[in-house]
Amino acid sequence: MADSVSPQHHVPADLPDRIRHYIDGSFVDSVDGDTFDVLDPVTNDTYVQAAAGKKADIDRAVAAARKAFTEGPWPKMLPRERSRVLNRIADLVESRDARLAELESFDSGLPITQALGQARRAAENFRFFADLIVAQSDDTYKVPGRQINYVNRKPIGVAGLITPWNTPFMLESWKLAPALATGNTVVLKPAEFTPLSASLWAGIFEEAGLPQGVFNLVNGLGEDAGDALVKHPDVPLISFTGESRTGQIIFGNAAPYLKGLSMELGGKSPAVVFADADLDAAIDATVFGVFSLNGERCTAGSRILVQREIYDEFVERYAAQAERVKVGYPHDPATEVGALVHPEHYDKVVSYIEIGKGEARLVAGGDRPGDFPTGNFVRPTVFADVKPDARIFQEEIFGPVVAITPFDTEEEALELANGVKYGLAAYIWTNDLKRAHNFSQAVEAGMVWLNSNNVRDLRTPFGGVKASGLGHEGGYRSIDFYTDQQAVHITLGKVHNPTFGKSA
User: Fold this and answer.
1) CA-to-CA dists, residue 14 to 48, 100, 414, angstroms
2) Which of 172, 192, 298, 444 is catalytic?
3) What distance in Å separates the CA atoms of residue 264 and residue 323, rounded to the nearest whole number?
4) Suppose 181 and one of 129, 223, 424, 426 were both cysteines; which one would form an S-S bond, judging by CB atoms 3.0 to 4.6 Å apart?
């Protein structure tokens, strides 16, 4: 580590001296030997170098995954056998949650308490799909005495998984668990900003008994390794989480191959607070909803729409509470907002704060905390009186920055809520039951929470509309995505066929 590290900054023991690919059961360097720097977000010093994957490395990984799919035991195993492996994976993740959280917090800048929650959620993702594939039932359609029709599900092949840098380990598990549960093999391309925790999957999978070649990992830049994975003809599925613009590029590059795509993209989600809402609960939830995970969350309620009758009180109380949010070192259990993931992203967030100062009224934050003269630290920032055509209202910032806008009527609130290109999540705060349901169903969002923050049931579909995504995962929707559904028809009685060409 460089000398600029603060004595208060925690650096985990036993960090790797380099991060390599994992292909066909072995850790390997890139074919061309290339590497890239991985930065500590608290200091922005390089703490390790990672293998920079290119097309040749993706080709090796896909070949290994394809061989494991066509020749290996994994796709042919009974669901109960695969379930046992997935449960062992969950047990191992749970047993190592403190270490996983320590590495994730160091690599991404997430507060340690929130990173610990994400590690435990990763274990739960594997346990959920271990249960689901054993309990899974498929449709049967009967025509009594004449025909039985049933659905036969089959794994598709090599799944290409491209994951983001926010809560990386958990979001990797969100894709790995259903892809593996359904009998596919995988090539994972983790985000280049945060490759550290992804490097732990190989050891976990080996110890759990996952067969060789079923899991492969290639690090690298999106335009190199990610692009090669999307364009590979032997990868029929791509699951991607990331920016909407990147999703558009993937959509275009995958089109010639007619690949299956599941893409969870950006968001600019509204939190709508009506005058009859429980104001204490709404303020707590909306503060947490945008500043947790350093504001680097796709479902953040980053636009808060507040009814005029309570607007001034809401803004005053919200700004005061935002000022009390503790910014600190990621390893400190008292920290509520840590360091943003990378200097490139920090610069983006700060640039939006400067834009916002010219578009709206700054009521909290807006600068670097005085205790942190270096590193990617930003005070929780609140803008009020934000117009709907403002860039900070329309564009995804993906940081601890929130825009508050007043409205008068329910119709105006709906127009404001729907007035952006995104449609991932929405949060509605009201005690009017009829309004709650009617507004929720009218809002353009793939997921809606009423009088609550983002608490997910893993059985429900996760995904967005408009620029926020394509397809859904979660519960049986994940099973649908990672399997081919084959309809099998069986005739039980006399075959009723029209006869062509029989007459002389």
Assistant:
1) 12, 13, 52
2) 298
3) 32
4) 129
